[in-house]
């Protein structure tokens, strides 16, 4: 594999000499950078970096590709730790229903929402689902995402959940960027179990989890813990069953109301608890003594006009915070992490430094990838992006809804 040297970098962002697994509290305001830098990539990995003033003589220029990044910023790619990019069709009809006054919950009660997506997905064959999802996968990489978690949850029966997880496996086996798979059978109660939620939970526990574990199709198990979806005690039972099969919990919690999913997830050793619009002080105290990453999905809160999770309060309490996209057809039809960073700065009043830490190293932690991606560290995957000519990294969230990324490099190779 050829070697790549990026020279004259205006600012090399998020440079960490040693692997840190996450950044917490006040430390989130610190973003280590090198101005006027170079970065060397070898065999798909970050090999070395430094200041141009101390650039070492290179003896072996054979096979060395050189990119000049004068006036450009280089950053590690985003780690998007929460997506649902394997879905069929879209739901722009419900978007109009919401514009006309219906709430997300009202649409769901009429059989729309997640059940609408499940109906579409069940009718879509695996190859077609793969092709539709692959477009989104390539799209997010072009927007700077260099590691991603993808959930099932639009099948809601054994065959369709397996279909989604097999598509996720096919995407993962392309070996482009690291992909983590999450089984989210408990995303909603399917129509055929409308009057028998317990029957569906039994199906998840007794049939789906063992089948998925047998095929090694998932790393994580997730539950949508919410009124009219799954209660805290049901969430706990599903997590316990998943853990017996080696699946680590993640959770959708406190999104539309306070449903206690965060507490259960922390008790069950979840790697992350996501959404958190209705999180309270007790939950914040519980996070404090846990390894669970509080994860905010600003696109979903924006798209559904939800109250904002208390990001500043959590950081001031000493917690780490991660940001991810939640790319899905119902609550966030975008996986653009540049825009998520803008929302995080503008709406949550976080600084660009805090937001970059939240979208790289902390979101990598939320999928157990902080040893592989999320910072410029020797030995990590060379998944990085080079911006257009801009003045500072703060210009990325500032210049909202614009794409400032010029080149994406994945495992040392130019992707776009
Ligand atoms: O993360 N909250 C639950 N699940 C998704 C939305 C699913 C959908 O509406 O299709 C979310 O927001
Ligand atoms: Fe989600």
Mean pLDDT, rounded to whole units?
A: 97
CATH C-level class of the largest domain is Alpha Beta
Bound molecules: N-(iminomethyl)-L-glutamic acid, fe (iii) ion
Q: Decide which structural class fits the backbone.
A: alpha/beta
Largest sheet: 8 strands, mixed
Binned strand content: 15-25%
User: Rg from C-alpha positions?
Assistant: 21 Å
Helix proportion: 25-40%
Oligomer category: single chain
Per DSSP, the total helix count is 15
CATH superfamily of the largest domain: Metal-dependent hydrolases
What would your notes on this structure say?
The chain has helices at 92-99, 104-109, 114-123, 126-142, 158-172, 197-214, 232-244, 261-267, 281-288, 298-303, 311-316, 337-348, 352-359, 361-365, 395-398; strands at residues 3-13, 33-42, 45-51, 64-68, 72-76, 78-80, 145-151, 179-186, 220-224, 248-253, 272-275, 293-296, 322-323, 384-389, 405-410, 413-414. By secondary structure, the protein is of the alpha/beta class. The chain has two domains: 3-77 and 375-414, Urease, subunit C, domain 1; 79-365, Metal-dependent hydrolases (TIM Barrel, Alpha-Beta Barrel). The strands form two sheets. Strands 1, 2, 3, 4, 5, 14, 15 and 16 form an eight-stranded mixed sheet that branches. The chain has an eight-stranded parallel sheet with strand order 6-7-8-9-10-11-12-13. β10 (248-253), α8 and β11 (272-275) form a beta-alpha-beta unit. α4 crosses α5 (158-172) and α7 packs parallel to α8. The mean pLDDT is 97. The structure holds N-(iminomethyl)-L-glutamic acid and fe (iii) ion. Residues 82, 84, 252, 326, 328 line the site of fe (iii) ion (FE).
